[in-house]
Amino acid sequence: MQIDEVLQNTQSLILDRYAGGMYFVKLKSAGLPDVRKRVGLTIV
Question: What is the pTM of this model?
Answer without folding.
Answer: 0.62
